[in-house]
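Hello forum,

I keep getting stuck at the same step: I have a sequence, I want structure tokens, and every attempt I make locally crashes halfway through. Rather than fight my setup again tonight, could one of you with a working pipeline run this one for me? It's a single chain of 427 residues.
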Amino acid sequence: MKLIWFISYNLIFYPLIFVIGLIFSLFDSKFRQGVAGRFRSQSELKKFFNSISNTAEIYWFHAASLGEFYQVKPVLEGLKNVEPECVAIVSFSSPSGYDNAKSDDIDLRIYMPFDFLWSVRRALKITRPKKVIFASYDIWPNMVWVAKKRNIHTNIFAARIKDGSLKLKSGFFSFHKSVYQSISTIYTVAEKDYKNMQLIIGDSNIPVSRALGNPRYDMVMKTADEFTKEHQLSVLSRNNRIIIGSSHKEDDEFLIPVLSKMMNTHPDLKILYAPHEPSKSEIKRIQSAFSEFGLQSSVFGRKKTLELPEDKVVVLSVVGVLSRLYWQGKICYIGGGFSTGIHNVMEPAIARLPVIFGPNYHHAHEAEELLDYGGGFCIQKKDEFQSILERLVTNEDHFLKASYAATNVIHQNLGSSTRIIRNLIRD
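Reply #2:
Ran it on my machine without issues. Output:
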């Protein structure tokens, strides 16, 4: 069966994905940037490896996007502390990760090469990595299969196999089995993910599988520790500000009317509105939507001086600062739950904000934990937003319980990156 999937993937599925990707890149500049980056990957690898010692141990990390890099970062930096002479490559699938991921411990950043057999073979021949390490879910089959043939250790950490996953469904199951059984070690987020992973890979000792947690909790905590030395004020002393993080158009359609209505009944409310894609056209659209309800808004685009203005409605026009701006709010709504899936809920949680989000959250283990502990609130229907928000705004006891619960989720999940590093070195 593995041979059938290998042939099908290389002769049918990936060539089809490649052609569709090329066509799609003609109409989407962000996608086009990623495709162009993949065409450059081989030459960038060759140039870099011509300039370094051929005795260095190479670790190749792969993150789909910026969110997955936040899982990679504490593991990468911890590994560099243990093995300071090693070389770390980090590859990305999307421009959001490639352009915005920051760490002094990245020796080379590239886009993941195209997953054709010849391009993967060449990339692995140039780099000769000790280990290829995938974060969470973005696994490229030929990279796994070719690495196994070359006796290169492959790992995936922060892996999730949720109940009802397509990976467990007939037709998808055998394909994913052929890929996951070829990986050397698999570290899942939770025990439930571990058990579902065992359904795919079987009960044998290869691959080695363990439940080691999600290192993104450590990343969020580290960032918060560095930032909050001067931000120790009680959450109650902050402005009565609601922060909308990474909103999509599907969120805007109900968020803006509800927020505008609440600002009429609660005059002290302020809004920081951060669209997922803060383009000029998106910002203009959001400002126009607020103006229809009689609310004027300002645009905040600073990256160094982060004190928000006292304006009632502020629209954020830059990326990379939202995690620090959460500390100037009290309640957060995270976007994407009515479209592609929710974004980062941990950054507002560590800032002690109760977090509201839509129903498409099951890819995020941390969102499930927020719901379990009472620090998060899922709105299945759009009209539920106002009732949940109203209670958080008007009931101080309810707000404080949710605020403390949100931060507690982070504290109770710390230490994963240390466990992953220890096992990466040992396995």
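The two ends are 28 Å apart (CA to CA). If your local run keeps crashing, start a new thread with the error log.
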